[in-house]
Amino acid sequence: MAEEVKLFKTWSSPYGLRAVWALKLKGIEYEAIDEDLANKSSQLLQYNPVHKKIPVLVHNGKPIAESLVIVEYIDETWKQNPILPQDPYERAMARFWAKFGDDKVLPSIWGWFTKQGKEQEELLQQATENLKFLEQQLEGKVFFGGEKIGLVDIALGFLANLICILEEVSGLELITKEKFPLLFGWMQNFAAIPMIKETFPPHEKMIPKYVALREKYLPPVVPPK
Ligand SMILES: N[C@@H](CCC(=O)N[C@@H](CS)C(=O)NCC(=O)O)C(=O)O
Q1: How far is residue 4's CA from residue 190's CA, in Å, rounded to a whole number?
Q2: Nearby residues of 166 by Cβ (< 8 Å), 6 or more positions away
Q3: What residues does the GST N-terminal domain cover (predicted)?
Q4: With pLDDT > 70 as the criterion, what percentage of the chain qualifies?
């Protein structure tokens, strides 16, 4: 029986990209359905009634939500090109660092991008501390997964696309070659993989999107009296 694989995503979502990368790594054909999150489809609401978010993978009619859950499902369903390590301890560590990306790295970077003044300085400190942990994880490795990309690379891959956009829009620097040589090199290596590069949302569309997002979240500037 032909497999039915559908992926509900958006053109720009870093979470959606995780599922795209996992499917591509496995060589699985799928139908991509780009959602308008301002006007969610009834199918999305039916498939992910709990969070009402993308991505959702639908495999032979069965929906799976949450990007990291989807990536693990893909890895367990199609065995070629493993994403998670075989060793139980290494698997646990990969899950730990992937979760660290969502729990700590992403919120601190988002805060740094959308705040100003003292609050922003504090978030920069938090983000720097988190990024230092990632830098340590890359010692002696090309990718977080070693010689090949794995779960942590897929979980954090959004950094390779998004950081330069956040830096350009804010006019600030976050991940420089001087401060984070290994992470900087990893971003370049990851972004250079043809299968990854071709999926990155276009820079010229991302810039206005993130300019608008920053304006939405930044507090209004009060003119001095
Ligand atoms: N933890 C979720 C986060 C997914 C997520 O935040 N998706 C956003 C798009 S980037 C979304 O669908 N937002 C719609 C909403 O919040 O209404 C995952 O890893 O899949």
Answers
A1: 29
A2: 109, 113, 174, 210
A3: 3-82
A4: 98
